[in-house]
Amino acid sequence: QVQLVESGGGLVEAGGSLRLSCVASGSGLPFTRMGWYRQAPGKRRELVAAVESGGAIYYGDPVKGRFTISRENAENSVYLQMNNLKAEDTAVYYCYCGIDDRGWTNPTYRGQGTQVTVSS
Hints:
Blueprint (H helix, E strand, L loop, with lengths): L1 E6 L2 E4 L4 E9 L6 E7 L6 E7 L4 E3 L7 E6 L4 E6 L8 E8 L10 E2 L3 E6 L1
Parallel strand pairs: 2-11
Antiparallel strand pairs: 1-3, 3-8, 4-5, 4-9, 5-6, 7-8, 9-10, 9-11
């Protein structure tokens, strides 16, 4: 079994920054991809960012230029640096990992989620 433990969420003012961390433990490592998706109340799940084991990186359009994802394969961890946060970034952020072709819409595993709240 795999566990993903997230940390770093919280309350921040618009324009501020937060850094999310996620560490994976268990069998089946390393994963094809790791990343973050988010879901706000009443809204659809959306991709925030993902990184492939080969290094390719993807960002959701709303966060391009503001968020940066990084991955430490040796530590099975992934990080999300979020700058210039906006009220619309408020959501629960989930760390996920995927094996083979599984991604953010159908992750192999995901964390419990961490709340990010941006006050305007």
